[in-house]
Amino acid sequence: MLLATELERVFIIVDKGQEIKLSDPEPKWSVEAVMNFYANTYPILTTAKVSAPLIREDTLQYTFESIMGTKG
Description:
This protein is mostly beta strands. It has one domain (10-66). 12% of the residues lie in helices and 39% in strands. It has one helix and five strands. It has one helix spanning 31-39; strands spanning 8-15, 18-23, 48-50, 54-56, 59-66. Strands 1, 2, 3, 4 and 5 form a five-stranded mixed β-sheet that branches. The chain is globular and about 50 Å long. The N and C termini lie far apart (58 Å).
């Protein structure tokens, strides 16, 4: 018998080598809506891109990475 379960979504912000793990505020929201929700707290998300989800530790992990380059 197969048993299907929905994986919990986890969002990770990667900035300058640091990782910040965020929980899912509302499972029904799109990934873009979650990014907009957290953008007030983490301004880096206003210019971030989302990577494809990975399954790790029984969670579905989305990574937000800054697309801003450094000068020089």
